[in-house]
Amino acid sequence: MSTSVKVKKGLIEKERTEAIIVSRYQDVGKVDGAIAHLNKVLRGRLRTHLRSGEFQGKLNQVSILHINGELPAKRIVLVGLGKKTEVRIDSIRQAMGTVSKAMRLLGVTSFTLAAPEQGIARTTLEITSQAMIEGCLLGLYQFKYYQMSREKSPKPIRGITLLTREENGVGMMRAGAQRACVVAEAVNSVRDLCNHPSNVLTPSALASEARTIAKARGIRCTILDRVKTKKLGMGAYLGVARGSHEPPQFIVLEYTGVPRTANPIVLVGKAVTFDTGGISLKPSENMERMKADMTGGAIVLQTIRAIAKLKLPLNVVGIIPATENMPGGLATKPGDILTSLSGKTIEVLNTDAEGRLILADGLAYAMRYKPAAVIDIATLTGAVFVALGRHAIGVLGNDDALINRVKRIGEFIGERAWQLPLWDEYKEQIKSDVADVRNIGGRGGGTITAAAFLSHFVDDGCPWVHLDIAGTDWGESARPYIPKGPTGIGARLIIELLQDLAGKPL
Ligand code: BES
Ligand code: MN
Ligand code: ZN
Asked: Which fold has domain 190-503?
């Protein structure tokens, strides 16, 4: 069941709702804005509540005041934003995620957010409203698909209202809230796709999801099967698919937001629906997480859906090589040599380094579009977790302007990316004695040598950025608006990057 989101003009003290949510800074003592209006009707009770010291306004702190008929609302819920001097737009997303989850636990099924009078953290009202609604919708995410005893779980939140006193803010806030709904739907759908187990979310299931989305949005969708990809010469991709009985599906989506003469941005997303490692079998501990080794592909798919909904004036192609990586009787073995779509030969020394093999053919296929830029996204290396942990996406590429744009946007929207170097020296590590390249680079710089490998399949002069999300795609514990398990991190980054590119074309 989905949550409906409304933006309206009205007086907070007249609002009939189960809960009024008001956010508050830690270091601003003034009783103003929504608090002042509510406090007046409550004849000072809210001020007394604030003065009690129970609630300091620390980031993500929640405090509830029940109303005894003085207001049409049942309760006022205060949520902390932390210190005003330290506030970031992500603080809003966090606070809203926290308070939304708290409301659901209480059994509240709809609530009203008091809109701030101005944008927070030096942003516009539109950006602030977007962050507020994103925080709620992302925070409320749950995956209950396979749990049949639903009566135990709390009721879903049916409605969220963003209420403002000022008529002139409504338009901006509505635009922000609408964008938030599209973005949150994309992120939550990525999380769903990653949560579904590999026996359900097969390459074929992902392909039919792509077909459904394409049909609903007027996007061109082409799906290449084992026979067609073989004819084209995708030997690297098929080298991974060989070990599995599940039919591989090479998915291509073409969104046209401007006339076809404009070169597209091409997105390439790794979609290994389960990575056993192949013949270089992974250890069994945590192997179940490899059902989410298709996160990059899911992000590309949901990004295409989001930008089609947002009608971005850009052409964007999504390429999603989907397959399992299994140790079947026909599987590629260490030492085998594959001929990729680009014509370059690859010595496979470790079948668990399969992501770069399918991306090699994905990137080579991307080059056929003469892209304005190529962005690939993949759960590619455990090494990126060693280097950056859970809090930064690894970013590498051949175009510093585009990389800096990714970093700037990531910082702003709370999905940070951190650059690792891609110097020529690293290419030495992937030289092969028997083929053009080898698929592993030995000890040291694993994320970088993986990117160095990918760079072989990107034409000179084509701006390219690689995002390694293997550290960020899975959370060990729940955060304010990010659940435990699949996080969907990377989807907002790419959607906002495309939004940025649409405003200021390359
Ligand atoms: N899908 C994995 C990377 C991964 C690891 C994603 C942990 C999420 C969490 C990838 O296919 C892989 O197995 N990479 C190997 C490469 C190595 C063999 C060079 C790795 O990182 O160990
Ligand atoms: Mn692997
Ligand atoms: Zn993998």
From this structure: Aminopeptidase (3.40.630)
